[in-house]
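Per reviewer request, we include the raw input and output of the structure prediction for the construct analysed in the revised manuscript.
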Amino acid sequence: MYFGGSFDFFDSVSSGEDEGSPGSSSSAGMFQMRDMSAFQESGLLEEDPYSESDMESDSSNDTLNGPTYVDPIECYVERACTGGAPDETAFVPAPRLSPSYDPPTASKTLRSFRQFSRYNSLSSSPPPEPSKSDVVSNYSFPDTGVLCFELFPNGIFDRKPDLVNHKISVDVSVLFVFPGLSVPGFVVDSTIFVNFSYFNCDGSGFNDWVLSIIEFSESELNCQNLIVSIPKSDRKQLAELSRAFMYAGFEIISPRSFDFNNNQFLLGYDLA
């Protein structure tokens, strides 16, 4: 996987000597399982959240293999037409609407409220609606300019930080809403950054949600790269999430590639 030189990834090539390892038995098609030895030996990360026993386990359910359980998700998108920070008016969640619905646009901001599901491309039958208790009801559109600054305090690409307001201008703000949680993100140039401060990777729901984010980022937002950030504060959560994403084909982004907050762990996926 190569991001056109913008990022420095450390890719590993499986030797194929261990036929029982997950890296030699993947049936996930476009998603390749990874040999973690290269990452463990590189010494580029101060603390490695993985263990060999975890990576060699055949009982893990947090990969994109296996049966797919389709959960509908909603994605709320706010586009800043000028390339600056999104309009800061209060965000009001839209009701469940057909994908063709397009609400009125604000004077400086193009808003798009659409329900997106992998069912759009997999089946003509609508997915079952989650119960009201399973859907996030109290959430607000995040200040992604602040989120971008927290992740890249010294700026990202050609975007310089606003040191007064502690923000960085973004092109698109996005909020992925799943049953039980919401995941914020933002787009700068052709790269979408998604923050996973909490994400349950138990069961097959993780598989579908990650695929939904990948497909939405590529087809609806026309992004070429997907970067996920995971806080290092919760070591157990970091280990589970990073392992799951790497099984899905994501690769570790080196702290040496560009200047991001060392309290975060970044992984990238090439959408191009």
